[in-house]
Write a structure and sequence with these properties.
Blueprint lengths: L1 E6 L5 E6 L18 H4 L2 E2 L18 E5 L9 E5 L8 E2 L27 E3 L2 E4 L16 E10 L2 E11 L6 E5 L3
């Protein structure tokens, strides 16, 4: 987000939000300034969680684009999960696949819990490249390469950073977890 400030004659500072440009060199960027991005760029999962009672198996959490509940800058909005205790996932494709060769991958995202965090995750998963990937079918089991962000249930609170890759010696998929 780009923020501009302007002093007023009373010494108060007005802060204005300016929507950033979507640089063509980025693999992905979204600042959620336009509510239509949900449903055009972003796809809500319509999957069902395996091994769960049918009455709660659906990924049917409700998503909206709206301003922060507290201390929002005028015009600055974000993706908000409106449902509690629901399975939910939303996904968007990169402009092109990222190849881990000689280039660095920089991922930045902001998370703000509108009413605190009770039980659930606020993490992001960078999905693994797959020719048959259907974003409407994304679940917790969908293969990813990187996962990071907060997760909490009860008094157990953690921050995930997981890197999944194919071990070049064994050919097996491994997960590397960052320790506290």
């Amino acid at each position: 987000a780009v923020v501009s400030t302007q002093s007023t004659w009373e010494g108060q500072i007005d802060v204005s939000y300016l929507s950033p440009d979507d640089n063509v060199d980025f693999f992905f960027m979204d600042h959620f300034d336009d509510a239509s991005t949900l449903g055009s760029k972003w796809t809500k999962s319509q999957a069902k969680k395996e091994g769960t009672d049918e009455t709660i198996a659906k990924y049917d959490g409700q998503w909206e684009v709206e301003a922060l509940a507290k201390d929002a800058l005028p015009g600055d909005t974000g993706l908000v999960l409106k449902s509690k205790a629901k399975h939910s996932a939303v996904a968007a494709k990169l402009k092109k696949p990222f190849k881990f060769d000689d280039r660095q991958l920089i991922v930045q995202y902001e998370i703000a819990f509108q009413n605190g965090q009770d039980c659930g995750g606020g993490y992001i998963k960078l999905l693994s490249e797959s020719s048959g990937l259907d974003l409407r079918s994304v679940t917790d089991k969908t293969p990813y390469t990187i996962m990071f962000g907060p997760d909490k249930c009860g008094s157990d609170s953690k921050f995930h950073f997981i890197f999944r890759h194919v071990n070049p010696k064994t050919g097996e998929i491994e997960e590397k977890h960052c320790k506290k």
